[in-house]
Specification:
29% of the residues lie in helices and 27% in strands. The chain starts with 10 loop residues before the first helix and ends in a 6-residue tail after the last helix. The chain is α+β, with helices and mostly antiparallel strands. The strands form seven sheets. It has a seven-stranded mixed β-sheet. A five-stranded mixed β-sheet has the order 20-19-21-22-23, with helices on both faces. It has 13 helices and 23 strands. A hairpin with a 2-residue loop joins β12 and β13. The chain folds into two domains: 245 residues, Bira Bifunctional Protein, Domain 2 (BirA Bifunctional Protein, domain 2, 2-Layer Sandwich), CATH 3.30.930.10; 94 residues, Anticodon-binding domain (Rossmann fold). Bound molecules: glycyl-adenosine-5'-phosphate. Glycyl-adenosine-5'-phosphate binds next to β10, β13, β16 and α9.
Length: 451
């Protein structure tokens, strides 16, 4: 048993663990790195996929009125004129005349000293800086047309509104969910994977009758904050922040952020936006294609309102890493006083669910462990630890957040049982190999942090 003394998690500790264990690497590191971009390593890609999987299940499988979509990143340039992004998707940029540092005017102290060189009265006037990346489509740059990398996945949903209505059985109120990459030429990318130029979003547009806006806005606010308990996130680390009039995006009539207590403090994790009929109306106007919905029962034709839930997937990875991280000072036994670093991932999110290890390599125990690991692959993401060094194996598995370690020992040969060791409590018990799959499944289903 461990006496827990929780050391506070810092961004530096997360960056270091993420690199050491293969969660996240700096992009193009051998060339000095590319700012604003990060690569997900062998464990990071599993963690990210698992977070995406829980969100996708929550949205599509758990709701009978939400369907999925995977729209292209490259869209007709008119989409971004209609959506208002060409005109309005800007941040106020200020530049220091002395050191040439660039900052977001709304993120720095208004008193006028440059955050980089510290000089006073060197900051220029704020100017509007559009966050969309542009590129060209077609073989010759000069004649080819300018095209944008999407800054939000949502527009792919809006422009497919009529396709989805016509091709599936959905009726208002219904939602369309999508996960994908988005790109923003942020003035300052920062805080590891928190604010990057290339990132992933998990968005859902919920189409409703305008009169039902208050009801559905409340529903999605509550539903989205409740969802985070399914990821095992401590509710004390989550809160709402309502946008003031000056904070609202150009498309929103009301908005709440769900904020999380990141190592840098409280910051936005997800936005819940009431977008009225802004997007459908603008697309109708710019394309000339009617976007109205016909209610088959009442024969009413109208433009639906939209409640949007927009979560960052890559930002969620940072949240999960932050929330899971713990340095524990061991209180008993031979390791008393030692510190173990443990990632308390919810088992549904853990990149590896079950590690299998022989207590020693000899006496046929390694072969037995190999056989067991192979037999569990169909049901769980597994890993074999073949070295026979149990202490080291436990430490490594704790650090990558593996919730269950199975140890094969001499008794296994006699009675076909193994020891299961729980990551959080470090408690151990014996379980028959024949029962393992249902035993672990049950444990995952009823998981409570600390068990
Ligand atoms: N469609 C609405 C929309 O895009 P947003 O508040 O601008 O709304 C939604 O973004 C979420 O996307 C944010 O809460 C955040 O999690 C994520 N996000 C936005 N910009 C990001 C960036 N530069 N890097 C990482 N994640 C970002």
């Amino acid at each position: 048993m461990a006496a827990t003394e929780k050391a506070s998690v810092t961004l530096d500790k997360l960056v270091s663990l993420a690199k050491r264990r293969g969660f996240v690497f700096q992009s193009s590191e051998i060339y000095g790195g590319q700012s604003g971009a990060w690569d997900y390593g062998p464990l990071g890609v599993e963690l990210k996929k698992n977070i995406q999987g829980v969100w996708w299940k929550e949205m599509t499988q758990m709701h009978d009125n939400i369907v999925g979509l995977d729209a292209a990143i490259l869209m007709h340039p008119k989409v971004w004129h209609a959506s208002g992004h060409v005109e309005n998707f800007t941040d106020p940029l200020v530049e220091c005349k002395s050191c040439r540092g660039r900052f977001r005017a709304d993120h720095i102290d208004a008193k006028g000293a440059c955050p980089t060189c510290g000089k006073k009265d060197t900051l220029g006037e704020p100017r509007k800086f559009n966050l969309m990346f542009t590129t060209h489509i077609g073989p010759v740059e000069e004649t080819a047309s300018t095209i944008y990398l999407r800054p939000e996945t949502a527009q792919g949903i809006f422009v497919n509104f009529k396709n989805v209505v016509a091709s599936s059985r959905v009726k208002v109120p219904f939602g369309i969910a999508q996960v994908g990459k988005a790109f923003r030429n942020e003035i300052v990318t920062k805080a590891f994977i928190f604010r990057t130029a290339e990132f992933e979003q998990m968005e859902m547009q919920f189409f409703i009758h305008p009169k039902q806006e208050p009801k559905w806005f409340e529903y999605w606010k509550q539903s989205r904050i409740d969802y985070y308990s399914k990821l095992g996130i401590d509710p004390a680390h989550l809160r709402f922040h309502q946008h003031g009039k000056d904070e609202l995006a150009h498309y929103a009539i009301n908005a709440f952020d769900i904020e999380f207590l990141f190592p840098m403090g409280w910051q936005e994790l997800e936005g819940i936006h009431s977008r009225s009929d802004y997007d459908l109306r603008r697309h109708q106007e710019f394309s000339g294609d009617k976007q109205e919905y016909l209610d088959q029962e009442t024969q009413e034709r109208y433009l639906p309102y939209v409640i949007e839930t927009s979560a960052g997937l890559t930002r969620s990875v940072l949240m999960v890493l932050t929330d899971a991280y713990e340095e524990e000072t061991l209180g008993e036994g031979a390791e008393k006083g030692d510190i173990r670093t443990v990632m308390h991932f919810h088992p549904n999110l853990a990149p590896v669910k079950v590690a299998v290890m022989p207590v020693v390599k000899k006496d046929g125990l390694l072969e037995l462990a190999q056989k067991l690991e192979l037999s569990l692959r169909e049901d769980f993401a597994t890993m074999l630890e073949p070295t026979g060094n149990i202490g080291k194996n436990y430490r490594r598995q704790d650090e990558i957040g593996t919730p269950y370690c199975l140890t094969v020992d001499h008794q296994t040969k006699d009675d076909n049982t193994v020891t299961i060791r729980y990551r959080d409590s470090m408690k151990q018990e014996r379980v028959a190999i024949s029962e393992l799959v249902s035993f672990i499944r049950n444990n995952i289903k009823n998981y409570v942090r600390g068990q």
